[in-house]
Amino acid sequence: MRQTVVVIGGGPAGLAAADAALDRGAAVVLLESAPRLGGQFWRHPTDRSATDTSLQHNWNAFVAMADRVGSDPSATVITSAQAWAIDHDHGQGDAAFGVQAAVGSADGPSREMITVRGHALIIATGAHDRTLPFPGWDLPGVVTGGAAQAMAKAEGIAVGQRVVVAGAGPFLLPVAASLAAVGARVIGVLEASSRRQVVSGWLPQSPWLAAKAPELAGYATYLARHRIPYRTGLAVTRAHGNDSVRGITVSRIDSDWRPVPGTAEYLDVDAVCVSHGFTPRLELAIAAGCALGADRFVAVDAAQRTSVPNVFCAGEPTGIGGSDVALAEGRIAGHVAAGGAITDTQLRPAVRRRRLLRRLTGAIRDAHRIGPGWTSWLTDDTVICRCEETSYGALRSTLIATRTTGLRPAKLTTRAGLGPCQGRICGRTVEELMTDLASTDGGADQRSDGVIIDRRPIASPVRFSELTAQARVVGTHEQMDTQEEDR
Amino acid sequence: MPRPSDVIVVGAGIVGAACAYALSRAGFVVTVIEAKAAASGTSGQGEGNILVSDRGPGAELVLAQYSLTRWDRIEQELAEYLPTGFPELEYELKGGVVVATTEAGAESLLAFAGTQRPAGVTAIELDHDGALALEPHLNPEVTAAVHYPQDAQVQPVIATEALLAAARTLGAATIFGEQVVGALRGPGPTITGVRTDRDEYPASQVIIACGPWSAQVAETLGSWLPVRPRRGVLLVTTRMPHKIFHKVYDADYVGAVVSDDHGLQTSSVIESTAAGTVLVGSSRRQSGFDQSLDLHAVREIARKAITIFPFLADASVMRVYGGLRPFMPDHLPVIGPDPLVSGLWHATGHEGAGISLSLGTGDLITSLITGSTSPVDPRPYAPARLPRPDTVEVPA
């Protein structure tokens, strides 16, 4: 019987997975939360004349895959589909899992509820960028690099006229380039890691640099042409303004990211884009029962299989690596999920590419790793949880008073992480602050409940009326086939 | 080796915390040992119900009524022991409204309320208009309702942390992240402390307060307890304007609480929290320690909630909690000395009423250990009431 492969996520990993599964002859159901394919990485210009896709890395590869998946009669592409839960339907004897999704505009009056079933599931949910809090980061005009880039790519709009791009990691470069391309004056790219850290992370990676050379050269040219300085060892430690950001304080930081006294400088800006790396979107993988490794990424084997039979994971949830790794992993997952073997000839390029890139991107990631000293730029009135408006001072005094050792009790006593975003923005920060407090103020010595912020059995909000609506079944409904022999 | 304790409490849920607080206040040297963190099991996964409305006359109601008098004073009492900056318990005597939407449901609800009044429960009968006056957004098809002004609510995690913090102020030690793996034994069937995965803790008495996990811990310590997990699911909405003013539940709830059915049972329990979210329960199912998302239960809870409050149809669920209640086959908590092992005590089996009964349980067990007058007759809760299976051997 023909395999049905369900893919969650229409970014690089998910598209490559769908493409490879179709190549192998499977039927594919692809769920994408946005109205169009591409994920966070590839953004469709709303008005094609207004923006330029030349800054979108691998745009042609995207167009080829999206066209193929979109037109293949064996593929069902469902956009605007919010996968909100995964259940296992132990009792039913059908496919092993059911992906529950709501289809339609999230704010719209009526979404259609669907249950997607198949023989194999590929989770390619990507990541969102992480911003460490600093005083004033909740002012309008302070945005994540991802948000700024999305606006630039899709709308052709710059978040401000005078902009600083700050944080850590290679992602700052395309953000700055996108902003410059839509007319913003980017007065600097401020990298938190020191020059030495950056150089020692990047330089030995010559194969990676060679592979990435055209892309990097593109950004470098852009930055140079727009006279955008790239400075290292600096962090935005405060945003100033009343109704919106008017300026920022930038401080030199040491290798632990602790601000060096006396180095603060004031910069006049009307927007600042800050990203300190990425947080994988893990909730659906966790809901599917996939085990995580000690590094808090989904544990996968060489064929991208998770700990759950017939469930695969590809791209950022298995380790932040960027779009090229995601493309390779997606291809492997799609091929194997469709009944192929990891040793098949057509997978060789992907397997080789993944091996090389995973090692190298790991070194780059280490070079931009968040230093523990960042907490020293917080003030008592710095908001930590923006949904529940929990300040650092309140969080700290509650954690010290309760001496709680669990993340759950910490959330329920401070309210941090309980709001609409369910800790997607502040969760990892709260975890780190608990650890930090333990070492400085005699708080809890460890988190002992084993709870992590990424566990969200309901992955996106769903209405009561939607919960009670009859869900339409999409995908296969047949008995599981015995495709295991092939693997 | 850690300091010798008078009493070790295994488990830092609300019941363990209440025992630790009551014993510390009575002058005992107490050590709490918890495998995970405070309120990381059942206590952190419920609504924080403090109810008298869901019980007919009997021993559990007596303990609930006594506990209610303790809850009423607890915030004031704890203030003396809590460090500054401690969050408020969000204790609120908000009252419960039990609603029937059919004629048959109305009849049995009113009959049940009639049995509660002689036992001291305030149960005010409401007609259709009276019910809508208290809860204007109720389904207008409500046929009858009973108002229970004695029902209250507390934020259970903060309450647990507060009791533990107060116990610490009174000298108790709290150990988190250590699992009890065995008993220290004296001569004969006597326990003289516990071994954890890291250390040995000598003590004169050991109390097991591990909720649904108490059966395993009892076995580890050489005894036996027939407590089983009974699963529940709770939905949390996004914040919304305040439209629900009491604990509102449907008349089926009482039936579900006292049922022995292993299958899924749902009945509505709906209330607003201080934070502006609405908590919507409840379900009961005996399915072992499985904690995966029970979507069938979630859908049933949603369906019933809309019947009580139609406006909830447009509300969004942003989070679900799943928890395990400690279920006893005879629906009574187990509070008192272990009949097999001298020095071993039990404080569990409260099913869904652990928050409510915790303060009474702490006082009761303290009175039994000191030999002072008990606040309520301890006999109905005695572990010795349980028929012991033949396979359990008395440790030599």
Automatic annotation (TrEMBL), chain A:
One of its GO terms (molecular function) is oxidoreductase activity. SUPFAM superfamilies: FAD/NAD(P)-binding domain. It comes from the Bacteria. The keyword Oxidoreductase applies. Residues 4-322 form the FAD/NAD(P)-binding domain. Keywords: Oxidoreductase. This is Pyridine nucleotide-disulfide oxidoreductase.
TrEMBL record, chain B:
It holds the Pfam family DAO. Residues 6-367 form the FAD dependent oxidoreductase domain. Residues 371-396 are annotated as: Disordered. One of its GO terms (cellular component) is cytoplasm. Keywords: Oxidoreductase. Gene3D superfamilies: D-Amino Acid Oxidase, subunit A, domain 2, FAD/NAD(P)-binding domain. Residues 387-396 have a biased composition (Basic and acidic residues). GO terms for molecular function: oxidoreductase activity. This is FAD-dependent oxidoreductase. The lineage of its organism: Bacteria, Bacillati, Actinomycetota, Actinomycetes, Propionibacteriales.
